[in-house]
Specification:
The chain has eight helices and two strands, in the order ααααααββαα. By secondary structure, it is an all-alpha fold. The longest helix is centred in the last third of the chain and has 25 residues.
Length: 165
């Protein structure tokens, strides 16, 4: 259970650091590809979180890419608050509960598998954002899980709003 909770916490730590790095590179903060990838990371996370919690997920409304990086950061922060609270109270029985995802008809996944999926899925897309960030003149942060562990699991620190709308 500890490793699963660590993976989730690291995911949010890495997301926040990457968002801050994008914010520091104006070309990246305004880049459509970067914003769409960042939104996709959050969209997938929200899908699995809501599915696991038994909360309705509206693909139509969730698919709307926010108009600014600040608005996207706000959505990340809100989702993090919900997920962090939820993950802390999970039991082994809850982790084993089976989910039926509408996108994978005929297959079920445990809550635990859904959590691992979103951690790995977001990792892959963060790598894509990091590559694009570098192409646009920014500097991607180090996001390695083992470095996060070595540094005593630093907390999630969200970037401050830029107030540029």
């Amino acid at each position: 259970m500890r490793t699963l909770q660590d993976l989730v916490q690291h995911k949010w730590y890495a997301n926040a650091r990457l968002l801050a790095a994008v914010q520091q590179a104006p070309a990246a903060a305004e880049d459509k590809q970067v914003c769409e990838l960042l939104h996709h990371i959050l969209l997938a996370n929200r899908f699995w979180l809501k599915l696991s919690q038994g909360v309705p997920f509206s693909l139509e409304s969730e698919s709307q890419v926010p108009e600014s990086l600040d608005a996207l950061v706000t959505q990340y922060k809100e989702t993090y608050a919900v997920e962090a609270t939820w993950v802390k109270q999970l039991t082994d029985a809850e982790l084993e509960r089976q989910l039926q995802a509408s996108y994978f008809k005929g297959h079920t996944f445990s809550v635990e598998e859904g959590i691992v999926q979103i951690c790995l899925h977001s990792h892959g897309h963060r790598a894509q954002v990091a590559i694009r960030l570098r192409e646009l003149g920014g500097t991607p942060p180090s996001l390695d899980f083992v470095i996060w562990l070595k540094d005593d699991r630093p907390p999630v620190v969200w970037p401050e709003p830029t107030d540029q709308a």
